[in-house]
Amino acid sequence: MAKHWADFQYEIYLQGMTGVVPRLPTDLTRLERLAEQRLGPGPVGYVAGSAGTGSTAVANRAALDRRRIVPRMLRDVQERDLSVEVCGRALPAPLALAPVGVLSIMHPDAESAAARAAAAQGLPYILSSASSTPMEQVAEAMGDGERWFQLYWAKDREVTRSFLHRAKAAGYTALFVTLDTPLLAWRPRDLDQAYLPFLHGVGTANYFSDPAFRAGLAKPVHEDPDAAVRHFVGMFADPAKTWPDLAFLRENWDGPIVLKGILHPDDALRAAEAGVDGVVVSNHGGRQVAGSVAAADALPRVVEAAAGRLTVLFDSGIRTGDDIVKALALGAKSVLVGRPYAYGLGLDGQAGVEHVLRCLLAEFDLTLALSGHASPATLTADDLIEESV
What we know:
There is one protein chain. Helix content is about 40%, strand content about 10%. Strand 2 (about 85) and strand 3 (about 90) form a beta hairpin. It is of the alpha/beta class. The strands form three sheets. An eight-stranded parallel β-sheet has the order 4-11-10-9-8-7-6-5. A two-stranded antiparallel ribbon has the order 1-12. A two-stranded antiparallel sheet has the order 2-3. Helix 13 (about 265-275) packs across helix 14 (about 295-305). The chain is globular and about 70 Å long.
């Protein structure tokens, strides 16, 4: 019998019989405001902030809210199976933790706590290149948990090669390559605080622990940390990369490769032609291009272009269980969640992340069933209507 994630609600109600209520809201849209009240403006702004006026983040939410689920009745939904297969891996539900860097600004246990929370729920954790914790330490923290590695594609080929070899050795099974951040966008919330953690050596753990990176330094990191930061800044991103460069990644990574940041159907076609395994329809949660197309509006055209040749995943705006239903109905195989679990981490460590994941999946399970579906596989665009604006 498949696990019913919805049972979390009865666990909460039964605990209430002894006077125990959840430490965090079960309406996950309330977490951002709570984080604003309890955490510092720099860290919260870094997680919550977006490019420009924030119009793209607003558009992400509007595109999901504009689509409404049309429930169907008298279908047998007593036994439900939310499992999916992504990148050749069997997952208990169509949800993974998106790569979020520099998590030590939210909680001292940082990426290790988030990874343990993912592993406890059987969900994949995608570790950011820009993590506060070396990839090997995160892998150890989550034991046998499913883990994927996100690559910020450095200018230095040897550092990139070293990252890929280290990730493979540490048991990361899929590579997610973020394409939409060849440069940092204009982010007023960070600029107004002059807040960029990397300049203080935060979010650089994978680099500072890397032999190829350290080979480019005149002195060890601890002897001249400022020089190490400058070396990092000089190589972190490369706006000169083009499609033929993907061949280098395939030569140095023998597992699935997923390109993150695809919004145009022609780019999905290019990805398929390049021989990668999947794409993430994403605008980086609105953090990179102000005025960008909403991710949910881009999703159907990318799915159509992929036409079974690529696994299509989705992020940017997922906050609720019904958001997951909508993304899957629009053709995504699975979704990634980012900011909500970062807020959960900041507010209550590993327990906060687990709370977010269990709430999301309980609401997804219930919404799916109450809409007449016992499996994500039966969702189609016909289960949605789009409200006119």
